Structures are given as C-alpha cells and as structure tokens.
Amino acid sequence: MSIKKSVAYFIYTFVLIVLFIFIGDIIMTIRQKMSTTGVAPLSVYFFSFMYVPIGITLGLPLFIQQYKKDGLWKVNKEKLVFAGVPILYLCFFYFLVVYAPSFLIPPGNIAHKFLNNGVEQFSGIVFGFIVITSIYKSRDNSKC
Known about the structure:
Blueprint: H1 3-37, H2 52-68, E1 72-75, H3 77-91, H4 93-99, H5 108-116, H6 119-133, E2 135-138
Antiparallel strand pairs: 1-2
C-alpha cells in the first residue's frame, strides 16, 4: 500500500465531497429564492449542468492515464455523438419541457419519470464523464 496513492485517493474523494456540497448549496439557494419570490429563474432549468464537474472529476483518473501516454491528443467523436448527445438531451430536459416544441418531449409516462427521478443529477454526471473520457491519446496518425 503506497502512501502517495492513499493521499491521492483521499484528496480525490475530498474534492468529490466538496463538489457535492458546493453544488447542493447553489441549488438550495436558488430553490429558496424561488420559494420566496414565486419566480423560477432560468438557471433552474439547467441544474443538471451543475453536476457536470462531478462527472469530469470521476473521469479524471482515466484522463490522467491518457495524459501520461505518448501520442497525439484525439477526441472520440462517436462516443460524443452517440452517447453524449442523448445524455445532453436529458441535461436539457427540464428546459425542453417548458420551452421546446412538443415533438421533442417523450409521450406521457416517460416524460413524467424523467422529471421526477433525479435524472438531472444523473445526466449531468454522466455527461461530464463522457466528455472527459472522450479525450485520449493515440500513437497512430489516422483520423478518428
């Protein structure tokens, strides 16, 4: 057991906890303002993006592994398009329900489940993880 690795894991976990507390405090402040004024600020529709730093932090060890490798930096475009864009849709879901045309909203019970099951937290975390893990180093010079 390495002391250096143990300290690194402790710092990593500490950063995650601080992020959760910081994000929770921001969201609580916005919700308190909403309850006293009765007006929802536009930021309420983008709560899920407040969780993106947690996803980025979760993917940071993989990014650091890539950083230590030799090669050219590349972006996994397929991962961003086929995994990132659907999750990005979920990140914007609250906003879409209020402002988007109805064809962008899933029918009935599906939309209700998205709105009431913490999807904004999950989607923000997953989106941050997808973004950070889509960046990698490659030794070959072929296009991705």
